[in-house]
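Hey, can you fold this?
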Amino acid sequence: ASPSDALTAVVVPEAVDGLALKKAFLERYGITVAGGQDQIKGKVIRIAHLGYFDPIDMFQVIAALEMALYKLGYPVKLGSGLKVLSEKLA
């Protein structure tokens, strides 16, 4: 209801452990994302985009999200998010 230019909240699929997804971002890809708080802990990740953040950073985060979900056993089609991002930015 209240969009933010500072971050994007991503709802984690129910079949995926949101805390494991957050951990995978940092340990596997060197990207820090925040988790949800209170009642949404483990249910969302929050991706900040304050300061210097350009399209290449967006590709990195989307690729990491796809690969982390895949590694955690979620049936994501690798490259699908990158395709959509490429089309939006073209």
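Oh, and this one too while you're at it.
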Amino acid sequence: ININSLGFRGDEFSKIKLDKTYRIFVVGSSPVFGYGATSDETTIPGFMQKFLNRTDFGFDIEVINSGVQAIRSDTELELVKQKLITFSPDLIIIYDGWNDLRSNISPNELKENWKDACEIGNENNFNTVISLQPIAGFGNKKLTEQESEYVKVGKNYSKKPLIESLSVYQHYAKNLSEIKTCAKTIDLSNVFDNETGTIYSDQGHVYDQGNAIVAKALYDTILPIILKNKEFNIFENE
């Protein structure tokens, strides 16, 4: 694990964004930071950088891992407001759900936090994408024996079985679909439904393969946003 001088996982980057650079921050808790990933490159942001590097956009793209252990939507807002906007983001992707659910954050409170995050982006001239993360037992994936055990033992911070909050998570997804002020929203709770092998390393963290699948789904979501910026030549005044 490499932590750069600005406190983020991954390689060094300039606090002042370089010319002709499109800067993306991926915000979330330990699944974004890459708990269990075998390298910086096999985290969700690491795989996204790899996928984006395959296309010549005519400008450089930076994907910065701003995952923080145990963070949730309210503290993510502070991270965005106090720190990330000072680095001139073009796009912020928020990957949420598990820690809010474990903290008993209500669907309405989470929705307001998401809306606030998008409003910060609108006010500061960057796009915001909100995504709801997958959790073992909360989608339609055929779970392996080990993954089924994770569902049985998974608890919230009040020590109650997390699976009892399935209806709350479904409400999270419904609320997410109703937000129209973000550049995009995406429900990833079913992103592993076609996978038969073991993806989860516990109820919310995944192995490298899972990170790659999530990263590809996020890549597909943000590609039209980046291409639109290319079409309108976001660097024409530089």
